[in-house]
DNA sequence: CCAAAAGTGTTTAGGGTACACCCATGT
DNA sequence: ACATGGGTGTACCCTAAACACTTTTGG
C-alpha cells in the first residue's frame, strides 16, 4: 500500500531518565553528549528509534548500551516535540524513566560518554529541554512511589529498614518517623526478614530484609504503600 | 546546521480520546475514519502533526476541527509506535485525552466524519491500536479523578449534586453513598450553591451548584477529592 | 562506659464508611 | 394521598500521626 502522501516526516528519539540509589540518596545518571550541537554538555542518555524496534525496545536498548543492564523497570513518561527543541532539525523525543540498582550498574560501567551520577539537588544545566524532562520524572517518581511499591526497584536484593526509609526520605525530601515507617513497611507483608545484619553503618547492626517477589508481583499497585501522603 | 545524517524519519500523528458526560453516563466520541486503509471504520479522531505546531497545539487543532471547541482540558497520555501499528507505513501516534462539556459540543457539530457518542461499555471495535488507547485513557481518567477534581471539566456551568454523583458513579462504575458523597463534595468548598433548582428529574427539584473557579484553579490537585479510593 | 544507631508500643484525632428517616412537590 | 427523588446526621472503625525509651556493641 502506498505511503501517506504529503506528510512530513521526522526523526524520533528516546531519552532515558535513569534513577539510582546509593544507600543514602537518589541519584540521576547523566552523560556528556557525544555529538554536535552541544557536544560535551550534560545530557540525558538517548538515541534514535531504529526502524524495526518498538519504543519500549528502543528504550531498553539505549539503557543497556549505557548501563549493561537488562530487564530493568522502565516506563514511558511523555513525548516532547516542540518544533524548535532541537536546533539541528525538528525531532520528537519519547522520554522514558528507569529505576536501576546502582550497584549492578557500577559493575558494568562503560564510559564512552563519561557518565556520572548526580544527586537530585545537584543536577547541572542540561541541553535542550532535558531539564524539564527531569523535573517531570522527579514528580512522576513521587506520585508513583506514593501509590505503589515501585521504589524497591532501586534497592539491592538485601536491604535494611533504615536504608528503605532513607530512600523514601530522599525521594520525598522530608524526614519520616522511624517507628511509623517501619510499622507500615512491615505491615505490607512484602518484606521477608533475613538472619544476617548489615553492620557497616551502626554498631548494633540492622537486619537485612528481602522482597517477597511473589507478593510483590501480584500485589503491585496497592494504594499508598508506605503512607507518604 | 546540517540535519542528522543516517536517521530514519516518520510521520507523527495525534489521536484524541474525547470524553463527555450526558447527565447520566460518560461517553466517548468516535468518528468514521476518512481514508484508507480501514476507511469508514470506527476510529479515534486524529491527524498528522504539522510542521510548525507543538504537540499540544496540534491536539488542540484536531479537537477543534471535530468539536468546534477551544480552551478545553487536554492532556498527553502516551505515545504508540509499534513498527506495524499502521499497515501503510510506520507512524507514531501521540495520544491525548480531552474532557469536554457535551452540551457545548452538540451546539457546534460538524459531521463530515459522522461522529457519534458511545457509552464506555458499548465501545465498538476500533482500528489499529485505538482500543488499547481507549482502555488506557479510561484507566487514566479514573486515576486522575481519584486525586483531582478533574471531572468538573465534563460538567456544564450549573449542575446538581445528584448529577455530580452520577458522573462519579459512571466513571468508577460503582454505586456511591448519597449522604457520604454529598458531604464530601460540599466539604471541599469548591461548590457554590445557587438559588434555582433543576426540576426535570424530580418533583422536589435539586439545587444547582457552580464551581468556585478561583478555588478550583488554585486548589487543583488536592489528594483524593471525593474519596472514591 | 560511652556514643551511635536499631528497634519497639501507645495514645489520639480525623476521615471513611455504613446506615434510615424526613422533606418537597407534581400528579 | 402517594410516589418520587432530594436532602440530611450519627456511630463506629481504622489509619495516620505524634511521641520516648531500651537495646546492642564497637571503640
Summary keywords:
26% strand, Arc Repressor Mutant, subunit A, alpha+beta, 29% helix, Nucleoside Triphosphate Pyrophosphohydrolase, three-stranded antiparallel sheet, disordered C terminus, homodimer
Q: Report the average pLDDT across residues of chain A.
A: 92
Order of secondary-structure elements of chain A? EEEEHEEHEHEHHEEH
Oligomer: homodimer
Number of DSSP-assigned strands of chain A: 10
The rounded Rg of chain A comes to 20 Å
Described by strand count, sense and barrel closure, the largest sheet of chain A is: 7 strands, mixed
**Count of domains of chain A:** 2
| Overall SS class of chain A | alpha+beta
Number of helical stretches of at least 4 residues of chain A: 6
SSE arrangement:
The structure is a homodimer of 229-residue chains.
Chain A: E1 12-21, E2 26-32, E3 42-43, E4 45-48, H1 55-67, E5 73-80, E6 92-99, H2 102-107, E7 116-119, H3 130-147, E8 159-160, H4 161-172, H5 178-187, E9 191-198, E10 206-211, H6 213-219
Parallel strand pairs in A: 1-6
Antiparallel strand pairs in A: 1-2, 1-4, 2-3, 2-7, 5-6, 8-10, 9-10
The first copy, chain A, binds a DNA duplex (27 and 27 nucleotides) through residues 160-162, 177-180, 182-184, 199, 201-207, 227, 229.
Amino acid at each position: 500500500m502506498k505511503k501517506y502522501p504529503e506528510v512530513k516526516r521526522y526523526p524520533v528519539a528516546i531519552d532515558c531518565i535513569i534513577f539510582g540509589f546509593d544507600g543514602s540518596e537518589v541519584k540521576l545518571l547523566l552523560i556528556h553528549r557525544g555529538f554536535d550541537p552541544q557536544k560535551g554538555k550534560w545530557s540525558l542518555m538517548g538515541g534514535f528509534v531504529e526502524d524495526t524496534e518498538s519504543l519500549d525496545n528502543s528504550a531498553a536498548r539505549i539503557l543497556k548500551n549505557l548501563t549493561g543492564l537488562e530487564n530493568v523497570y522502565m516506563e514511558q513518561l511523555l513525548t516532547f516535540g516542540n518544533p524548535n527543541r532541537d536546533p539541528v532539525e525538528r525531532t520528537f523525543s519519547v522520554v522514558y524513566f528507569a529505576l536501576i540498582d546502582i550497584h549492578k550498574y557500577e559493575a558494568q560501567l562503560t564510559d564512552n560518554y563519561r557518565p556520572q551520577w548526580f544527586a537530585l539537588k545537584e543536577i547541572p544545566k542540561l541541553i535542550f529541554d532535558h531539564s524539564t524532562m527531569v523535573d517531570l520524572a522527579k514528580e512522576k517518581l513521587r506520585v508513583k512511589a506514593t501509590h505503589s511499591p515501585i521504589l524497591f526497584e532501586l534497592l539491592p536484593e538485601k536491604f535494611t529498614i533504615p536504608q528503605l526509609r532513607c530512600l523514601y526520605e530522599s525521594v520525598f525530601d522530608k524526614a519520616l518517623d522511624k517507628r511509623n515507617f517501619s510499622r507500615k513497611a512491615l505491615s505490607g507483608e512484602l518484606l521477608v526478614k533475613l538472619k544476617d545484619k548489615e553492620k557497616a553503618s551502626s554498631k548494633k547492626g540492622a537486619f537485612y530484609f528481602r522482597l517477597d517477589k511473589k507478593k510483590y508481583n501480584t500485589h503491585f499497585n496497592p494504594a499508598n504503600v508506605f503512607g507518604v501522603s
